[in-house]
Amino acid sequence: MAMAMSDSGATRLRRQLESGGFEARLYVKQLSQQSDGDRDLQEHRQRIQALAEETAQNLKRNVYQNYRQFIETAREISYLESEMYQLSHLLTEQKSSLESIPLTLLPAAAAAGAAAASGGEEGGGGAGGRDHLRGQTGFFPTPGGASRDSSGQGEEGKQRTLTTLLEKVEGCRHLLETPGQYLVYNGDLVEYEADHMAQLQRVHGFLMNDCLLVATWLPQRRGMYRYNALYPLDGLAVVNVKDNPPMKDMFKLLMFPESRIFQAENAKIKREWLEVLEETKRALSEKRRREQEEAAAPRGPPQVTSKASNPFEEEDDDEPAIPEVEEEKVDLSMEWIQELPEDLDVCIAQRDFEGAVDLLDKLNHYLEDKPSPPPVKELRAKVDERVRQLTEVLMFELSPDRSLRGGPKATRRAVSQLIRLGQCTKACELFLRNRAAAVHTAIRQLRIEGATLLYIHKLCHVFFTSLLETAREFETDFAGTDSGCYSAFVVWARSAMGMFVDAFSKQVFDSKESLSTAAECVKVAKEHCQQLGDIGLDLTFIIHALLVKDIQGALHSYKEIIIEATKHRNSEEMWRRMNLMTPEALGKLKEEMKTCGVRNFEQYTGDDCWVNLSYTVVAFTKQTMGFLEEALKLYFPELHMVLLESLVEIILVAVQHVDYSLRCEQDPEKKAFIRQNASFLYETVLPVVEKRFEEGVGKPAKQLQDLRNASRLIRVNPESTTSVV
Predict the structure, then answer these.
(1) Would 606 disulfide with which of 49, 262, 539, 610, CB 3.0-4.6 Å?
(2) Which residue(s) pair with 414 in the sheet?
(3) What is the spatial distance between Cα 450 and Cα 456, in angstroms, rounded to a whole number?
(4) Distance separating the N- and C-terminal Cα atoms of the chain
(5) Nearest 10 degrees: CA dihedral of 82, 85, 90, 92?
(6) Where is the stretch described as Disordered (predicted)?
(7) Is the pTM higher than 0.85?
């Protein structure tokens, strides 16, 4: 009973801790109020600790399960690798077996055929009985069976078999009207999904002498099929699938870029399928090779009647003899040309892109300046199909859906092979699209933490490093190609810069950072941008054009802040001297004024810690010079008038207030003090502002000169006592 109560209490505690509105502080407060003493708290602590240990055990168990899934995935990958190795091994064995068949076996085979024929005559009707039985069996067995065509059938029997096939399969009549085509083997199969090995459907396979037809069952019509797919044998690869109970008696058909897995009824039928597929492919390859040899065989030399053999023929020196022009033949009987389509399939399957392009270059070099008779055109058609497949694979390698790790160098292999295939424009487009996705991903993965300036340092490092690496890789890959690719790169760089400025502005300007922080961030971005000049890429004008609107907004916003602060101080102005109380404070103020560019500030200091200037004027001087210094860090030519107008507006607020105070003040001592502050503004502050602006911009500002040279900036009516500010 106590154990049941303990379990229910633990369950209730777990639910309470897992609830969405759980607050630890409120929970501890309630627990302290409800407990009778220290013992209850200790027991509750033990329950929570036990719950934590249980949670840790569950976490370990989940980690272990995930680890087991990882091991199973690795095992599946190893199975896939073994299948690819097995496929390569089978192709190598086929090649070696074809090469090892000696031509001397042909006479022996002929002799053996003659002996078999004589033995058949002596045996009476045995062979004929077998042929009759074979004819009675038919080529469409009962479900689950498989049958093989008799090699002894004549042309009429083969045509009859094909006609029967056309009657049994819907939708394939227009696909099987090739002259000389006949049925070799057929049987029932079960198709499985390649990824999850789930059963898909029942099918029936029909192997012709040059193709494989796959048809699906029609449950409503017994013995009838519907056309599903047709695969030429010269583009088909057969792979034996290792038995892995309960998945057994399976084999895989590879038709780039897809593959299908079928299961036979038993191991014997599976072995028959594998054998007959290989034999039929071998026979088709041998037939094609013989046809090409016959087409490429040179004709006998034309018989030319010798003049010496005809003594009655008169010599005619006036008419030159016209030699007969014989059509040039192209020799395609070489072994590497015969196996070229299959070798290309193997290279594509094994991702040996360089080897595939080397074979294509070798073929193009061999066929260069040669005529194009029908055999050459047929070979070209087969090769062009492989070129299309290879191009699609290389384009997929560069697609953004692939892994973006490895940097720009990871794309070099696919880009170089596409350029060799004559797809330079497509390679450039896909390369730049891949790098744009990589840059976008790198920017998104940056964590926004800490100070803004620290984030901007990381952002600039990631972006400009990626841009620099991309530019160098682009120059390496596309050196010597069409100059249009370089124009595409400049357009891409501008687009990438726009992506960078979006992230930059969102963090610096949209978050309303101070002008000093914004100035430091822009300075960092400019410095990184100037590093691209080492490779001849100047994007400074682009970053200026993209940032000009945000910087104008920041200058306008900070100008309004200074004007409002100045007006607020003006409203509380008492026109009294500053007393800094301590020599340290006075020394600090002198250093600040020296930093601002005011070198003669000593003449405005009095005895002890007094300063013969108003607090408002001193604060205005520091704030205005600080604004000018930060604005000059942001300066570029497009901001010249914006900065100049902002400075004029800020200065006008101060000088208008001084002018108005001189007009309204009646006390002689205060009036003299105001005049001293006005002299400081006109004779000290304004020249410093003008000089610093000219140093930062590189040219003087006429508006600032007019402000300094004017004795009064605004003529106020002497009888008026109202400020126009």
Answers:
(1) 610
(2) none
(3) 11
(4) 86
(5) -160
(6) 116-159, 285-322
(7) no
